[in-house]
């Protein structure tokens, strides 16, 4: 069995079998000794008992490690190539409360809320930027302007591309009708979104990297700060005082 396929359930079964065998062996030795069939030294029994305890302790540690790293395991499993239809989305940035923020769409997935950049399946004859513009309008009501094609996703859905886009947030015609989405939010730091609250968890790190890169570029373009050409995005993030209330509510659902 490959290590990436081991589950906490596998460890429980393996531990149960091992403990059962050791217990049966100790019991059998005790019975044989009682009927004077063999003579078992106390030292030997102590060794068996220690082995039994080590097996149980090892299983507990392994279970804890798998539980802690279950998010990484999800990413590994989702890095398989995707051969479905091509899709595209938009990395939409704007300034909110003096900080660069990214537009994310909120979706309902089973019993929880998840987020993703606006995007969807490309229709026949569409270019990547056409799909990004159309999907953003359908999912958020915002009209965006294409600026630059970024790249294809290196994880999971290999046919998914993102484009860097401009937006006019002064638009007040934000009526949208899409049964697949329940709203949208502007987030200043996507790193605080839990892995399980991303619609496509395997793309989380990629999107965060792009937000880092293009937020710095965006600040330079609009000259929001005088030192924007020398400040890195990580340095800007250190100025953050808290997180979005909307996201805090989202992560609790």
From TrEMBL:
CDD domains: NUDIX_Hydrolase. SUPFAM superfamilies: Nudix. InterPro entries: NUDIX_hydrolase-like_dom_sf, NUDIX_hydrolase_CS, NUDIX_hydrolase_dom. It holds the Pfam family NUDIX. Residues 85-208 form the Nudix hydrolase domain. GO terms for molecular function: hydrolase activity. The keyword Transmembrane helix applies. It comes from the Bacteria. The chain crosses the membrane at residues 12-32, 44-66. The keyword Metal-binding does not apply. Keywords: Hydrolase, Membrane, Transmembrane, Transmembrane helix. This is Nudix hydrolase domain-containing protein.
């Amino acid at each position: 069995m490959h290590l990436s396929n081991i589950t906490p359930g596998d460890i429980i079964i393996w531990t149960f079998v091992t403990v059962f065998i050791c217990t049966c062996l100790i019991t059998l030795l005790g019975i044989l000794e009682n009927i004077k069939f063999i003579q078992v030294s106390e030292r030997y029994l102590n060794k068996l008992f220690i082995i039994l305890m080590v097996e149980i302790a090892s299983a507990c540690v392994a279970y804890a490690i798998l539980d802690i790293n279950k998010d990484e395991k999800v990413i590994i499993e989702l890095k398989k190539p995707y051969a479905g239809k091509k899709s595209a989305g938009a990395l939409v940035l704007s300034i909110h409360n003096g900080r660069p923020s990214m537009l994310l769409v909120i979706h309902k997935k089973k019993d929880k809320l998840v987020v993703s950049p606006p995007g969807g399946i490309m229709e026949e004859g569409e270019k990547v930027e056409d799909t990004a513009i159309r999907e953003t309008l359908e999912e958020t009501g915002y009209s965006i302007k294409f600026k630059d094609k970024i790249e294809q996703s290196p994880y999971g859905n290999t046919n998914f591309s993102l484009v860097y886009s401009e937006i006019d947030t002064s638009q007040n015609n934000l009526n949208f009708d899409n049964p697949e989405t329940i709203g949208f939010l502007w987030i200043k730091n996507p790193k605080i979104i839990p892995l399980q609250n991303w619609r496509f968890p395997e793309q989380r790190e990629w999107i965060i990297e792009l937000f880092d890169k293009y937020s710095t570029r965006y600040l330079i373009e609009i000259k929001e700060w005088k030192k924007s050409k020398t400040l890195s995005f990580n340095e800007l993030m250190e100025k953050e005082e808290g997180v979005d209330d909307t996201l805090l509510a989202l992560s609790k659902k």
